[in-house]
Amino acid sequence: MAASPLIYARCNYSPRIANRSSSQPSSSSSPCCSSSSTPNSIFTSLSGANREQRQESLRAQAMSTTTQGKSPVKTIVNLKNDPDHLLVLVHGIWSSPSDWSYTEAELKTHLGKSFLIYASSSNAYTKTFTGIDEAGKRLADEVMQVVKKTKSLKRISFVAHSLGGLFARYAISVLYSPDTYNSGQLGDSMNCMMENSQRTDFSRGTIAGLEPINFITLATPHLGVRGKKQLPFLFGVSILEKLVAPIAPLFIGRTGTQLFLTDGEPNKPSLLLRMASDCEDGKFISALEAFRCRVVYANVSYDHMVGWRTSSIRRETELGKPPRQSLDGYKHVVDVKYCPPVPSDGPQFPPEAVKAKETAQLTQNNVEFHEIMEEEMIRGLQRLGWKKVDVNFHSAAWPLFAHSNIHVKKKWLHNAGVGVVAHVVDNLKQEETSSILPTS
User: Fold this and answer.
1) What is the tens place of the pLDDT at every residue in 260-295?
2) pLDDT band at 202 (very low <50, low <70, confident <90, very high)
3) How far apart are CA 408 and CA 132, in angstroms?
4) What pLDDT, on a 0 to 100 scale, did the predictor assign at position 206?
5) pLDDT per residue as tens digits for the range 208-234
6) Is this prediction's pTM over 0.85?
7) Looking at the predicted structure, is the pLDDT value of residue 93 above 50?
8) Angle at 324 between CA 321 and CA 330, to 5 degrees
């Protein structure tokens, strides 16, 4: 029997490995989400104190041989010790690869030589203002150059912060190919196993010719920043939220119009709505669906740049009361849920949305238009299964730095987020193991 992948319990339990056959959805504040745990874990509990011991255990499991039917299946060992898993780090707005200094060092320390950790540099600083699509294309070109130079690569993952998550979502649609990847590895992740019972019509493919494993975002505005409290530093004051949309392009260029959903002509859907579907611009949902594991980390409060709804892809009614108790070994990580795919026809741009968009562009009365767009984007993105990780810096010395704390932008100032980075590292390690372990 192969090692079962991770799925964590709610905040008042220690995180454990779920048993494949016994995990059952439990009640939660969000109707689309569930979380589960089991005492019969084959690995040790994922607490910070046992990380090195777990790493040795995972390595031993990965080198094992099992039997699939009557034929023995053995994992492939990289004798040259060359990296075969590309992990791309994507920074946010007005930022640079240096934002990843701490996280990159942690990843290199704990993931080993099989990973090539690459911090993207193609969209530094003012280049983040040129539009999500333009930045996404530059990122895609950059990734392809790395892949071409490193012949040993077989798998690919992304970890992106803030606006970088939208750049990465656009980039993977450019890099996506529907050709099925067949690496001979039979492992699978929990979110993929749970999805199999409710598969969408999308088939898995490759990203830059590699097998897609993890797509992880931290405090990314997946639904844009238009609407009540989606841009928290405006404190939910409606007059400010109306005024900021038309002036945003003056400060952050074309990216601002896309984040506030005012881009394009009235009769054309905004880019973020198009990115919640497969359309003529790209196979956005198919590219996301190709990844074994999709994870969104979201600050439940104190994030002045990105609201809880937009970063966790939830409706207001799905949020509930923000958890406060940290998971064992991961300070400030307060809750982890798996949200299975919700079947739907996908996002629409109905005639009433066209009219509402025209009104919003002329008068900045954004309430009706935003409500329509937010619901349609959620419907599109929730057609896929997501692991949703809530983070709460309420007890940190500087909680208002939550947006930078979540990925430890600067170790000396944002070190409250080291537990979140540890959680990301362990997520990546577990998915790496499940991708190379055979199943019975």
Assistant:
1) 888 988 889 999 999 999 999 999 999 999 999 999
2) very low
3) 24
4) 97
5) 999 999 999 999 999 999 776 676 656
6) no
7) yes
8) 135
C-alpha distances in Å from residue 176, one per residue of 110, 171, 276, 382: 29, 9, 15, 20
Q: How many whole angstroms from its chain centre is CA 411?
A: 22
Q: Is the pLDDT of residue 204 over 90?
A: no
pLDDT at 13: 29
CA–CA separation, 275 and 273 (whole Å): 5
User: Does 248 score more than 90 pLDDT?
Assistant: no
Q: What's the CA dihedral at 219, 221, 225, 230 to 10 degrees?
A: -50
Q: 377: closest CA among 309, 294, 283?
A: 309
pLDDT higher than 90, residue 161 = yes
Q: Which domains does the chain have, with CATH numbers?
A: 79-315+325-435 (3.40.50.1820)
The three-point CA angle 294-214-325 to 5° equals 60
Tallying the residues shown for the chain, one arrives at 440
